[in-house]
Amino acid sequence: MEPDVSIETSCMIRIAVLPIGDVPSTLLRDYHSMLLRHCTIPLSTISSFYTEHQKSPFAHQPWETGSLRFKFVLGGAPPSPWEDFQPHRKILGVIGICHCPSSPDLDLVIDQFNAAWRGCSSVLVQRCFAFSPGDSQLEDTKKRENLVLFPPSDRPAQELHLQTMMQDISASLLMEFEKWVLQAESAGTILKTPLDSQATLSSEEVIKAKKRRLARAQKTIGDYCLLAGSPVDANAHYSTALELARLTADYFWYAGALEGSVCALLVDRMGQKDIAIEDEVRYRYNSVIVHYRKSFIQENAQRVSPLTFELEATLKLARFLCRRELAKEVAELLTSAADGAKSLIDASDKLILFVEIARLFGTLGYQRKAAFFSRQVAQLYLQQENRFAAISAMQVLAMTTKAYRVQSRTSISKQSLSDETETGHVDSGKMHHQSVVSLFESQWSTLQMVVLREILLSAVRAGDPLAAWSAAARLLRSYYPLITPAGQNGLARALTNSAERLPSGTRCADPALPFIRLYSFPLHPSQMDIVKRNPAREDWWAGSAPSGPFIYTPFSKGESNDNSKQELIWIVGEPVQVFVELANPCGFDLSVDSIYLSVQSGNFDAFPLSVDLPPNSSQVITLSGIPTSIGPVVIRGCTVHCFGVITEHRFKDVDNLLLGAAQGLVLSDPFRCCGSPRLRSVSVPSISVIPPLPLLVSHVVGGDGAIILYEGEIRDVWINLANAGTVPIEQVHISLSGKNQDSVISIAYENLKSALPLKPGAEVTIPVTLKGWRLFLGESDTAAGKNAFGSMGRTLKDGSSPSLLIHYAGPLGDAQDIETNKSSVPPGRRLIVPLQICVLQGLSFVKARLLSMEIPAHVGESPSSLANMDSKPFGEAVGYSKIDRLVKIDPFRGSWGLRFLELELSNPTDVVFDISVSVQLEKSGNEDNLSVDCAAEYGYPKTRIDRDHFARVLIPLEHFKLPFLDGSIFSKDLQSDGSTAGRNSNFSERNTKAELNASIKNLISRIKVQWQSGRNSSGELNCKDAIQAALQSSVMDVLLPDPLTFGFRLARNGSENAAKLDLPKESDTSIHHIASKNSVIAHEMTPFEVLVRNNTKETIKMNLSVTCRDVAGANSIEGAKATVIWAGVLSGITMEVPPLEETKHGFSLYFLVPGEYTLVAAAVIDDANDVLRARAKSESSDEPIFCRGPPFHVHVNGTA
Amino acid sequence: MTTAACFIIASRSDIPIYEAEVGSAAKREDAAQLPQFILQAALDIVQDLAWTTSAMILKTIDKFNDLVVSVYVTDDHILNIDDGIKSFFQEVHELYIKSLLNPLYLPGSRITSSHFDTKVGALARNFFCSRTQYRA
């Protein structure tokens, strides 16, 4: 069988094109293609070359309209045994093609040419075309037969030359045909086919052959007429031949003549096709097929069969009818032709048959049928087991891939790919079911796998590693669920083996493994937020939602409705990250040599990464890179170097695959089978790159870990801010956000301000003062129950820490720019510095109590000043012992009515706390001490509280007493006590109440309970409320002095002392009598003085009396057992003390018995005013107001 | 000769939604998928033919070597391709409609129900066991 047959084949003159000498293959192809333009030479053009030697047998030659047709066979063909039957199978002409530069010796060329064509007996005309001859060759004027030199010239000239040569050849052939026909008509030639028995002819057969000779001759003459381009002559001869052949029952030749007549018919009609001709052709060809079938002779069926002619005739008819409308008929013809393949003996005939069938089905539009037969062809090639056959098989299979939907990406046109990406970009998430289905149309996995396997096999055999790699990659990627682990391993090996034969860095359009999908595009971390800048406003960051972390905020309403489309801003030079998920659903270890983002726009430097994926696993990895220039960034997928080849994996493909899997159209979702969660549709946001911005980075000096604070702890934290960008920072603003904002006491904002502009690389440290907030009750309860770390974790998780928001921006840019285009203002940024404060429960306050303590004073020579109770301990502290700050109680004054605030504290933590109480003292009210007007501090030694212990801290409240008793202060008390006088409350009273409250507050605020733990934890205990509660009831006692203060002293140097009560003088005198200072000796008259001080602003009249008691408490002055004799007045002393002054009264005592005695002064106030009454809390106005002084101790020495 | 048939239900978009090999074929490794290839190729013819005829059963529309293709086209143009006995096709069509009524079944996706599989297998045994021809 011959390839590419059609009805018109019968009228084509076969010419062999032979390369002579060494012709480069590209040039040979070029020359051949030049020849191919001259397949048809009109008869009208060859008349000048034609000379009629004798009368032409072609009487009806259409010189005006007819033409000769040629079929150029490159390289020639072996002679066919059937050439007598069909002369168009004969090589009738030979054209040698010689490339002169590579074959300098023209004689040798001629020799080679002659040798080449002489092997072929049927050749009638022969020419050797020598292209591009050199000058010497042109000058070589020696006449050589059949050699035509093509002078070097441009292409059109050469083509013209070639056309002329072809016309010359045509004319020569025509003349040869005429010669042949004339010869054949006169002398009968015996025409035989292999079908005729070759063995000795029996006599009967000889007679038969003689009869048939004429028909065969007529048929052959017809054939030559056809070749000579004279269909009418041909038809005449064919008619005769048909008649004769029918009579002699020479079916084979009958069919041949019929075929020729159809061809003559078509040539005559010059290709015009109408229904009548079509019907005629169909009718005649069916007859041709039937007659070829009839000519089948059983006895020589093993050797030779007319089957090929029958099949060729079928194919010719099919090709003639091959139109969409006649598809059914053509399909039937082709099916029957395919059926005939079973009986074909020669494998190459089968091959040609299937090739032709496939081509015809392809023309018909039956792609699957075409693919099916192409695959049959490929299988036939593969049976041949040699490399060239394998290459052919591979190429044929490659053609079938489209029909089976297993194309390599290289074969898919770029246009369709870009279309896909365009449409897919819009809404990949909401792809309609139907369009998803269309993506996976005709996915017949069983077939696809078989085809891919065959491609792999043929590529391996053909030695095409890239094709093998591509096929194995497609097979593995698409059908891994259908392949056993062993098979998967085999494919992996095939990939590796193929890659070994490829040069390193080879790219392949078909990705293999792993599957890669977009996991997420991280928005800017809060440290790098970009904030749109409004240059018109001072607070430029306001009113623009930051780029993250919230995609939707209710306040950004109306700004942009297009929330579905994410937009991302990247900055030149700042590394960015993209998370992708890789899946290896196969049963082998996959090692990805490198993977990086594949960016179409080319303004991105991607950093490669290498990953190892265990079998059946998926992994999320971070791919990073740096945008290099301004503009949009388009990320299509990842570039992967795996199995030795570089491939591009597009996100889009995997998205479609996953979508298909979700619809049940694809076998399996590679991510789900690796245990990864369900499909999340992540679309690639539109990313734009903007010019560099400043970048502020922060770290907390001393570590970025959580700042652990105990409740109430105050600590400075230094935050280091550095500009890591390439643009200076010119504007900056700090604000607070989050919970517990009040825990940030101060931020040294000025430090930062003064450092502006912060140049790239510059850094600044700002101190921030923090105070641990109070834990809530429930919180502290649980915290107490748990250990410290448990509570720490909890507080951190709660996110109760505040954050510093630092808005900053670089230079505004050109001022003109801003005016013209607002959007051109480079955006600012926002840095969020989360202050990771972890508040632990610290020292806790249990309760506060007010205690009173009474220590009787000793009566001595140095009396205390009764006037200002504050001055003395203060003076002592300053004068004598600055270091020893113990509470000093003047033994000569005592501390009658001294009150302590007792704070009970517990330490539930596991560290030790040191408590120090400090009291701020106010000196404002003291006229004596004008020099000291600022608040001084009075401290007490530290108290240490061990872990899990309770402790009490005493705070003496001795320094708070007001210098005098005043009605204005007092009126509050009247009211609070509910006395009758306070009933008529008015505005001024309220006012004073407020004043009093303020003074209480003042008092409380002066008490500071500070604690320290470890080296650097310190804070203040917040117990003001508790103290206030504790003080509330008895605040009067603490604050207000008694109206009268009493004191006793020895008055040995009576006159002096009486004259001057000044302290310095006292000190002087006491030095002399230091030895006998406190000694009162029995049996000796001892002078005493009782001092009375009026603490009010009005003169008080009173009735003073002094008593003396012994240890037993019995009155030792009066009574039967009196042990003291006295001189002077002891009772009923009427006295008048001017306001805020002292009056003294002298008396003497004579102690009979040594021991301890107590002196007590008491007074009944006459005509007490309201203030005094209120102070004494008297119920009725006529009740006497009684004042009692504190007891004073007298130690009497001596013997009884 | 072995008794074997390949039965395929192809969806509208030519994706096989159901495949079954009925009977036991002495398979050669390379020829194992041949019936499927033939069926897939026959779809070309079926597609043309289905619009030109109102018949649901298209008998022997294609053949390759000894394998004959018959087709039953359902009214929603889902093709059951097989050689055929009318009643076999009708029974399977009934089964197919039943599975189509399943609200969880997405038209066009694979039929994976084992129940369907066993039913088809049983039907096929009834109809083809007596045959001695290799069918597709």
TrEMBL record, chain A:
One Pfam family here: Ig_TRAPPC9-Trs120_1st
The Trs120/TRAPPC9 TPR region domain, residue ranges: 328-496
Subcellular location: Golgi apparatus
UniProtKB keywords: Golgi apparatus
Trs120/TRAPPC9 third Ig-like domain mapped to chain residues: 886-1039
Domain Trs120/TRAPPC9 N-terminal: 9-195, 200-267
Domain Trs120/TRAPPC9 fourth Ig-like, residue spans: 1069-1197
Name of protein: Trafficking protein particle complex II-specific subunit 120 homolog
Automatic annotation (TrEMBL), chain B:
GO cellular-component term (any): cytoplasm
Highest taxon above the source species: Eukaryota
InterPro entries recorded: Longin-like_dom_sf, Sedlin
Phylogenetic lineage: Eukaryota, Viridiplantae, Streptophyta, Embryophyta, Tracheophyta
GO biological process: endoplasmic reticulum to Golgi vesicle-mediated transport
Identification of the protein by name: Trafficking protein particle complex subunit 2
Organism annotation: Gossypium davidsonii
PANTHER family cross-referenced by the UniProt entry: TRAFFICKING PROTEIN PARTICLE COMPLEX SUBUNIT 2
